[in-house]
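Case study 2.
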Amino acid sequence: MSCRTRLGCAATRTASRRAEPVAPRRDRLVAPRRASLAAGAVAAALLLLPGCTSTEEENKLISHQVSSKAFYDSGEFARAEDQCRRGLAIDEGHENLRLTLGFALLRQGTPKKLEESIEVFDGMGGLFGRDDWRVDMGLGIACQQLAHLQAAAIDPKAPAKPETTERIAALRDRSRDALERAAKRAGANGKGEGAKDNAPADIPYHLALLDLDEHALEPFFTHAGLALSKLEEQDKVFGAQLSQPMGESERNRTAKERELNARRGQLLCRESAIRAFEQGDATAAAAAMERLEKFGALDRGDYFSRARIREQLGKDEEAVRDYEKFIGLSTTQLDDTVGKAVTALTRLRSRLAEKRTATPPGGP
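Prediction:
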């Protein structure tokens, strides 16, 4: 016989520092370098313990743990969930499987899955010690996303039910508390003031999204700036990794993580530009649009946004080029925005023509 602790016993254990983080690259839930070596090492350790589960069960448990990690890393979150449930049927108190389950449910993103994800993270307060930031981060993200979905489901033509608005407000409060707690716990890893902020980008990123949901612009700019710095740094890491030889599956996984990283950066840059422009700060809006290009090529709408910002700053020639680019990309999307761009382009061209034909100062 070999053994793991039976149900309920795991809650008193403290996580080892090797336990896996969550969300792009930093958020991998189990981090063995090679699954087969990890499985062998775990099996060897288990054989040394007195116990109550059979060797066959232990082998199944190891298989479910390794499989759940592999499915999660490849983005097959429903299959990762299934493997976690199979493993937890053997050992309900298995910390890594419960953590993976919480994030697998979270990444599926439906209201039902998010509700269960919250329940899973709520039940992990005694696992991994009392200060594990990954549990707080998962709880905060799940609450934020569920609140966002419930708010989006409200019919704008009808008054929202009081219980619905109260539920959304409560979820947002829980989300902020949990994310801020995660930021504090993960931040400097207990190294004291002045230490480098080691919190993953996921935390300030989701705080920024929560700020947008709550129309809290001042904290949004703070959280978005912090998240963008971390996302830019991570993009460089991904680029360096992809320049090195690696297996096809690892390359695909890294490329997907870099793509997700870029999408997050683009979203924050666009929202920062829009909010700054609406507040009359065209300079900050222009800086956000410049930062956007670090995460990839501009899309159709970006050219219109940047043209408006450049026009506001008096950069007429640059604004003309952006309006022309926007109109050129809009041949199959004739909407009100295209009409506005044509009007602005006509106005700017006329203004530039007047400047070119004006009599130079001091001339006849």
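Confidence is low (pLDDT under 50) at residues 1-52.
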